[in-house]
Amino acid sequence: MFVTYSQFQINHSMTQLPTFSDIKLAHDRVRPFIHLTPVLTSMSINEIVGAELYFKCENLQKVGAFKFRGACNSVFALTEEEARNGVCTHSSGNHAAALALAARMRGIPAYIVMPNNAPEIKKKAVSGYGAQITFCEPTLTARESTLMKVAALTGATEIHPYNCFNVICGQGTAAKELIEEIGPLDIVMAPVGGGGLLSGTSISAKALLPGVQVIAAEPAGADDAFRSFQSKTLLPSVDPNTMADGLLTSLGTLTFPIIMNNVDQIVTVSEEKIVEAMRMIWERMKIIIEPSSAVPLAAILENKLVVKGKKIGIILSGGNVDLGKLPF
Amino acid sequence: MFVTYSQFQINHSMTQLPTFSDIKLAHDRVRPFIHLTPVLTSMSINEIVGAELYFKCENLQKVGAFKFRGACNSVFALTEEEARNGVCTHSSGNHAAALALAARMRGIPAYIVMPNNAPEIKKKAVSGYGAQITFCEPTLTARESTLMKVAALTGATEIHPYNCFNVICGQGTAAKELIEEIGPLDIVMAPVGGGGLLSGTSISAKALLPGVQVIAAEPAGADDAFRSFQSKTLLPSVDPNTMADGLLTSLGTLTFPIIMNNVDQIVTVSEEKIVEAMRMIWERMKIIIEPSSAVPLAAILENKLVVKGKKIGIILSGGNVDLGKLPF
Question: Exposure of B110 by Cβ count < 10 A (0-12 exposed, 13-18 middle, 19+ buried)?
Fold first, then answer.
């Protein structure tokens, strides 16, 4: 039923995993289209935690999330012939908006399968970027079968939100920019959901800073990556329960081996500390982040790792929150 | 009772007004202590307004406001002998925190007179930076007389929040950075309260971009700068009523003539548009700004100036808001 890491190593001997060279290529490809997001620091948060934190602000990326990097790389990596038929995916979140915008920038169609109970604001964002939405029942089976039909009908290329070579390479450009700007770091942190951001981040960090520790943070209420990492077996996310709604998904067959190869530690955090970290960043740094982005700082506040005196880079993954539904 | 602009020109013939050379000196002085704040753009806001907007994010400055630039310049411009006795001011807002932090950075005392009804959070911020607070009755007379006593007792140098040569020079460094980063702009905008930010901004903009228009925006409920500008007479702010609580004060004897010399237009905006602009920046740019910062974009949304196709720099003045009391 479950696939272990050693089985992966064998199964994937034929499957190409991305390297830092692929991330460099991706960076050259997406550079004209993405925001070079700022790296911010906060004197007062540094004093609280006793370390130097460097926040890479992907909440300030286009569509408000790092997802635009991976979507953009995937869209612009298509051949002219592939591109003509467009791209498709099923998503109710940031990946849908990111793919829709990237496709619009290349001038090709985007077909997005969304559950019919997706929030109005997400539907509007995606259709606002000119994508064609197909609604389906809110089950994974319905989403996958509807996407298969859409792909068959249109010939569009499916772009998976995280378990996809070009998506992972695109996401890795954020950590690359962070390290190129700040220089040596002792630790690089990212939240983990499906593992696309963490995979790309870990490849860039290990290539650019050989002695660095890559540490992922995950909500205790959605700890499938933590359990997979500990058991060296890809375990699915079962009934996840966390306000960090970007981190509900399971790792994938591509992201799992990359994480096993490159990540030093995965730590889990409580919902209480996620709210505390989120509020701390809003109040002290004056930027809007979504709960998923707060998870690495939450891990530090919860003393899940030794940070005293260290230089730590943190990827803030996104800033898409409903201002009418804040947890504080 | 009121002083007209021509009287000012005579009265101030002996008073030195800051020039761009002074702002360059200020910039060299404060550079090691301030954040080089990012300039952000939003594709979706550009599409809405039909112009290219470049937002200089002073909400991401230390203490969450541009005020730190002026306070820092004033503190570090003191001679060793002056510095020994520290600095003082009366303020219940961002200037108090900014002065306290700047003084702490130089290792000198800061004495802050605050009304006893100031919000707890402001008192905490100021004392957190190590300043010594003297409380007084919440009237201007009490604040001024208490400050005189404090200054007499300590020998501290008073740093006025805006009507002060070195403060104005410090505030002008934000527009200087903006223009140095982005290059030519058709219009530069800032909100106007006491006029410190607007004065510094206008000097930098006119020096670096000879053809530029400098346009200030002010809440209609606190339109003393607008009326002063129209009548060429320094008129006080009377019973101002606006949520933009950074813009309640009157222009000063230094800021008024600078503004008369350098500003092309002052426009007023409704409270409704301030909320709309503030929410637009929160939602689309993922940054936290206070209502005062939203006033220039509000003027654009209210069609108070012709922006079509133009490149416009906007100083976002600060991000200190009470998350428990949002206007949306």
Answer: buried
- A287 vs B35, B286, B326: nearest CB: B286
- How distant is the alpha carbon of residue B196 from its chain centre? 5
Which range, of A30-39, A237-246, B17-26, averages the lowest pLDDT? A237-246
Task: Give the nearest partner residue to A64 out of B286, B323, B324, using CB atoms.
Answer: B286
CATH architecture of B3-65+165-316: 3-Layer(aba) Sandwich (3.40)
* Architecture label for domain A67-158: 3-Layer(aba) Sandwich (3.40)
Are A289 and B285 in contact (CB < 8 Å)? Answer: no
Cα–Cα dist A246/A217, whole Å: 13
How far is A26 from chain B, CA to nearest CA, in Å? Answer: 22
Q: Is residue A196 within 8 Å of residue A253, measured between CB atoms?
A: no
Mean per-residue pLDDT, B181-189 = 98
For the record, the structure tokens of A268 come out as 């889990």
pTM for this one?
Answer: 0.93
> How far from A301 is each of A116, A263, A317, CA to CA, in Å?
38, 21, 18
Chain B positions touching chain A (beta carbons under 8 Å): 35, 38, 40-41, 43, 59-60, 62, 64, 279, 282-283, 285-289, 319-320, 323-324, 326, 328
Are A178 and A153 in contact by the 8 Å Cβ rule? The answer is no
For chain A, give every domain's residue range.
Answer: 3-65+164-316, 67-158
- A3-65+164-316 and A67-158 share one CATH topology? yes
B287 to A286: CB separation less than 8 angstroms, yes or no: yes
| pLDDT score for B5 | 67
- Contacts with B35 from chain A: Cβ below 8 Å: 40-41
Rounded to an integer, what distance in angstroms lies between the CA atom of residue A90 and that of residue A78? 19
Alpha-carbon span A95 to A89, nearest angstrom:
9
Give residue A172's pLDDT band: very low, low, confident or very high (50, 70, 90): very high
**Cβ-Cβ contacts under 8 Å for B249 (sequence gap 6 or more):** B161, B162, B193, B194, B237
Distance of alpha carbon A87 from alpha carbon A131, whole angstroms? 10
Chain A neighbors of B323, CB-CB under 8 A: 279, 282-283, 326, 328
Q: Is A323's CB within 8 Å of B43's CB?
A: no
CA–CA separation, A277 and A301 (whole Å): 7
Q: How many beta-carbon pairs under 8 angstroms link A with B? A: 50
**DSSP string for residues in A21-38:** HHHHHHHHHHTTTS----
Please report, as a single letter, which amino acid is at residue A57.
Answer: C
CB B60 to CB A289 under 8 A?
Answer: no
Among residues B301, B267, B125, B214, the alpha carbon closest in space to that of A283 is found at: B125
pLDDT-derived band of residue B13, with 50, 70 and 90 as boundaries?
very low
Q: How far is CA B165 from CA B7, B159, B250, B274, in A?
A: 20, 10, 17, 30
In what order do the strands lie in the sheet containing A157-158? Answer: A132-136, A110-115, A87-90, A157-158
CATH number of A3-65+164-316: 3.40.50.1100
What secondary structure, in 3-state letters, does A162-205 show? CCCHHHHHHHHHHHHHHHHHHCCCCEEEEECCCCHHHHHHHHHH
- Determine the Cα–Cα distance for residues A326 and B288; give it in Å rounded to an integer: 14
Q: Do B60 and A319 touch (CB under 8 A)?
A: no
- Which tens digit of pLDDT belongs to each residue from B78-113? 999 999 999 999 987 899 999 999 999 999 999 999
Contact between A60 and B40 using a beta-carbon 8 Å cutoff: yes
